Structure formats: C-alpha cells, structure tokens
Prior knowledge:
One of its GO terms (molecular function) is magnesium ion binding. By secondary structure, the protein is an alpha/beta fold.
Amino acid sequence: MKQIKITALRVVDLRFPTSRDHIGSDAVNVDPDYSAAYCILETDSALEGHGLTFTLGRGTDLCVAALNYLGRFIVGRTLSSITDDFVAFNRTLTDDSQFRWLGPEKGVIHLSTGALINAVWDLYAKSEGKPLWRLLAGMPAEKLLSAIDFRYIDDVLSRDEALAILTASEEGKAQRIESLLANGYPAYTTSAGWFGFSDEKIKRLCEEGLADGWTHFKLKVGGVPADDLRRGRIVRQTIGPHNRIMVDANQKWGVLEAIDRTNQLTELNPWWMEEPTSPDDILGHARIRREVAPTRIATGEHCHNKVMFKQLLQAEAIDVCQIDSCRVAGVNENLAIILMAAKFGIPVCPHAGGVGLCEYVQHLSAFDYLRVSCSLEDRVIEYVDHLHEHFLTPVDIRRGRYFLPETPGYSIEIRPESLKKFAFPEGEAWKS
Ligand SMILES: C[C@H](O)[C@@H](O)CC(=O)C(=O)O
Ligand SMILES: [Mg+2]
C-alpha cells in the first residue's frame, strides 16, 4: 500500500457565539463561546486528518499558536512512521525541551497536543476505511499496547495487566458489537440544565427530554444555595423519582463548602456530584467523597493528564471517571486512562459538553465497552444538543442512546462552509 505522507498542517481558530443564549453556561463559565483550535493534516493522498481541541472563546488563539508550533514535528512524516511507533511520536510532542517547560503535559500545550494526535487517529482510521471505534475494536492487543506510554503509570497498571484486560475482552466481543449496533450506548443530557436557563426553560426542556426518551438529566449548580435547591426540585419533580439527576458545580467551591453544599442537595438524590472543587485537588476530592457518601463524586473534564487520573483512582477520590477526548493527549492517553479505570473498577462516563466532544467520545466509550470494561452498568456518555449540524457525520442520538457511526475516521470533520463562517475573527458569524 502507498505510504501516506503529511505535507502540511492547517490550523483554524473556530468560535461559535453560544454565550448569546447561555448555552454551555455553568457557575464558573458564565458566558462560554464554544470554540475549537481545529487542525487539518494535509497529505499527498486524497485523505486528510482532522482534529480539534475544545476551548471557550478568548484563549483559543493560544491553542492555535501551540498547534502551529507543534506542526514542525509532523509535517514531512509518513502516517505509518507515526502509527508504527506512536509512543515515540507522542514524546516528540510532549518532551520537546524548552516547549515542555510550559507544561509538561498540561494546559494549552497539552490541549493542542490532543488536537494533533486525534487528527492522526482520524487519518489512520480513514486510511483503514473504518470508523475509529471499529479500528480500535479490531486492533490486536499488542498493537494497542504499543500506542500506550506506560511511563508514569506502570506503578499501578503494568503492560502485562493491560494485556490481560485486553485479552479477556475478546470473549463476547462480537456479541457486544451486535448489541451496540442494535441498541446503542446509553447517554445522559445536559441540555436542560445550563446555569443561565430560567426555571421555566429548565422545566420545559426536562419535559421535552422525557418525551424524547431521556432518563438521565444533568443540572448546573454552584449558585445561591436556595436557587440550586429550587432548580433541582424543578428537575426532580418534572422527571420523577426513578429517573436520574446529576449535579455539576464546575469547581465552584473549596473543599469544606463543597461538602456542605453537596449535603444540602441530598433530597434531590443526585446520582453524582461533578467537579465539586478544584480539579487539581486530588486529596480534596477524596475527602469530599468520604464526607458526602453515598452521593457519588465525578470528575475528569479538567484533569490534565493520566498521572492525575492515576492519583484520583489511587486516592479513592472518584466514583465516576470523566475522560475528556482532547484535554489529554488524544486517543492514546485516553486508552491508558480507560484501562486504569477498569483496573480500579471505576466506570468511565465521558465528558462531552462542548463542540465535537460528543462526536469524539462515542468512539472511546465503544472501545471501553468492547475491549476493556465489557459492561454498560453505570456507564453513560454525556450529550448536549448543540452545534452538531456543523459536522459531516454528526452523532446519531435516538431515545437517549448513541448509535455508532460507520463513516471512516473519528467523526470530527467540520463542514467547510462552517469552518469559513465561524473562523475567528474574519468569519461572517463574527462580523456583526
Ligand atoms: C463550559 C462547559 O459548557 C461546561 O459547563 C461543560 C461541563 O461542565 C459538562 O458538560 O459537564
Ligand atoms: Mg462538567
């Protein structure tokens, strides 16, 4: 087969004015414009690799600058030279002396690394003629393991343990694929519960969500205590006692306040409390978890890298592991995190509030189900119903479940007309 050579990297600053309607708002991010540093790997073939990292408006330009910098490590490479030794390639991105001083493996540079690595996987899956989830589902265990960097995590998950998990998952895999294709992967909606929505809107959206088959609803909290409780009661009364509420404070509180505020919400019977405090406070999460039990603690969307996930798991700080498809270094690092979560028996429920994250994470959850956990118990993928129209292969959601794509790639390619219209600041959407 002809080698595919990467000839150029094109980067776009893409922003959608979602803050105008309070879409995506929470107690901390009160006016988010869902945005992306978006990249296209051009090649000497007809194929392109697309990837993005999710951001929130101002600051996207920093990720764009970092992506342009990282371009020097990929332009001129063949696809197979990367995928034959993924760990070495990833280390060229994360270990560049001087640039790595900005991290390492966190913040702007890691977000941008995620976009680039995801673009490689998009190209890889397209070159194999498969959607990413099918590529991962069929990949030999040894090949998958060669894509994972065990440095910094082999004290909790050895390569042999990972191999044992992947090997065991072969049993029943074909049936699980059939079941996913027939029944989809369970999901929850955040679309009814944004922070800036009025009581009336929350109630109406919950009613509409119920009619559409949703059973799990997430509500943003972290405002005035009485407001949180009132809004929570609206959700609970509307969806009834048997459906599930999750609450998300988006890091609003210190540890002690988080314990108080979570306990004040117990009458809602929340299925989980998400990001109650600083995402970096691993022991703080562990204490909160102990002192609000049986309310479960979820976090991960702001977790910088696999080392922090390792420690959250080691410290028994979380009940739900919320991987993020592009905050860490793309597919490879998420494979490692999913395997670690399995080792600790913690369910993975990916974060997907943002643009493109639903499109991405469906592939990762399918991998988790098919190759790692082999279970759907207590597992749901987040869904938000915004901006999907900009994707060439938007997610297929029916009755609160994701139905997986068959189009080759990582489902992240944005329509050319949307790339043009929402490019910042020159796109038509930003002219007025
Ligand atoms: C700013 C984002 O919309 C954030 O609120 C998303 C989030 O926390 C979630 O989806 O969970
Ligand atoms: Mg959240």
